């Protein structure tokens, strides 16, 4: 019976310890505090250089933002220019870099305790002017209000050409020359392109004399010029010769640093403009320019495997 008593005492002791543990525990109370979402959110956008004469700013593209809300810890901001939304404190200076006067839809989300949020949208118009090298303006326009006129230098080898553009998924490195294909002298005769004339004025007016037709991709013409795409097959793939009259519109300048580290000037057109073969781009990068010659590049869709088109121009004799 000694063994039995020992077992009974042992069991009793274990039970007592367990019971003591339960009775000695205190109830813990946790509180997250007030998790109410931020309130009274406001967005102040101070556009640099804004006056009655310059309602969209002085061309610097700088906007000084102030965000304010009760119970807010930080602010997540989508500036509406395609950049990724990020979290900022209550003030942020932002430079918008799209040339001309552009409309932006700014969305601010005030973040409170526990991740509670409140959002607000503010719409602004901002003017940005790229500070182009005056020498480029002179070479392009002749510093003339009536303009300087250019045409494709059809007698050259490589008057048009193709090469790899930026950020290609297939891994082909970007070049700044037509390394894939060069059109031979007068190689696109009969395509409605060699009789085109391109005039640029120092007042930023662009006139494209088409002589009745344009040469480029049919899908691009359908998107930007005429959905009906009147015209004829251009001879290869989706190439098309579009029936289209002369047109005039505005142009401006922008800048871009290439993957080779070189800063280059870009001619940006208001709506339709381009030079050479139309691949869907209204931005022509200046690779080379002199008083009488110009070498341009147009990338239709960066980050894809689409080819970049090149064109060599010469000044039309007065």
Structure commentary:
It is a single chain. The protein is built from three helices and 20 strands. Helices cover 12% and strands 41% of the residues. The radius of gyration is 32 Å and the shape is elongated. Strand 16 and strand 17 (263-269) form a beta hairpin. The protein has 318 residues and is mainly beta. The strands form four sheets. Strands 8-11-12-16-17-18-19-20 form an eight-stranded antiparallel beta barrel. A four-stranded antiparallel beta sheet has the order 4-3-6-7, with no helix packed on it. A three-stranded antiparallel beta sheet has the order 1-2-5, with no helix packed on it. Residues 1-26 have low confidence and may be disordered. It folds into two domains: 39-128, Immunoglobulin-like; 134-315, Lipocalin (Beta Barrel). The N and C termini lie far apart (128 Å).
CATH class of the largest domain: Mainly Beta
The class by helix and strand makeup works out as: mainly beta
SSE topology string: HEEEEEEEHEEEEEEHEEEEEEE
Main beta-sheet annotation: 8 strands, antiparallel, barrel
Q: State the share of residues found in helices, binned by percent.
A: 10-25%
Largest beta sheet: what is the strand line-up? 8-11-12-16-17-18-19-20
Q: What is the count of helical runs? A: 3
Estimated radius of gyration? 32 Å
Number of domains: 2
Quantity of strands, as a count: 20
As for the CATH topology of the largest domain, it is Lipocalin
| Principal-axis shape | elongated
> What oligomeric arrangement do these chains adopt?
single chain
Proportion of residues in extended strands: 35-45%
The CATH architecture designation of the largest domain is: Beta Barrel
Indicate the low-confidence ranges by residue numbers.
1-26
> Average pLDDT across residues?
89
Gap from first CA to last CA: 128 Å
């Amino acid at each position: 019976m000694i063994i039995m008593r020992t077992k009974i005492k042992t069991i009793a002791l274990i039970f007592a310890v367990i019971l003591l543990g339960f009775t000695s525990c205190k109830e813990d109370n946790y509180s997250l505090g007030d998790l109410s979402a931020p309130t009274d959110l406001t967005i102040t956008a101070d556009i640099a250089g804004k006056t009655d004469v310059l309602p969209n700013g002085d061309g610097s593209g700088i906007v000084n933002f102030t965000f304010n809300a009760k119970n807010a810890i930080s602010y997540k901001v989508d500036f509406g220019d395609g950049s990724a939304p990020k979290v900022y404190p209550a003030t942020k200076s932002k430079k918008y870099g799209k040339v001309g006067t552009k409309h932006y839809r700014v969305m601010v989300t005030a973040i409170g305790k526990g991740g509670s949020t409140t959002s607000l949208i503010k719409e602004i118009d901002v003017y940005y002017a790229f500070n182009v090298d005056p020498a480029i303006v002179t070479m392009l326009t002749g510093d003339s209000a009536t303009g300087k006129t250019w045409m494709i230098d059809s007698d050259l080898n490589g008057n048009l050409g193709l090469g790899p553009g930026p950020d290609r998924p297939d891994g082909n490195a970007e070049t700044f020359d037509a390394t894939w294909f060069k059109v031979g002298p007068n190689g696109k005769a009969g395509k409605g392109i060699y009789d085109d004339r391109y005039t640029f004025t120092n007042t930023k007016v662009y006139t494209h004399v088409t002589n009745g037709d344009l040469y480029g991709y049919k899908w691009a013409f359908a998107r930007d010029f005429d959905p009906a795409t009147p015209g004829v097959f251009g001879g290869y793939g989706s190439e098309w010769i579009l029936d289209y009259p002369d047109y005039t519109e505005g142009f401006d300048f922008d800048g871009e640093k290439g993957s080779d580290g070189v800063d280059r000037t870009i001619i940006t057109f208001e709506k339709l403009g381009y030079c050479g073969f139309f691949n869907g781009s209204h931005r022509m990068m200046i690779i080379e320019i002199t008083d009488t010659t110009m070498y341009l590049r147009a990338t239709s869709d960066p980050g894809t495997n689409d080819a970049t088109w090149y064109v060599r121009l010469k000044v039309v004799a007065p």
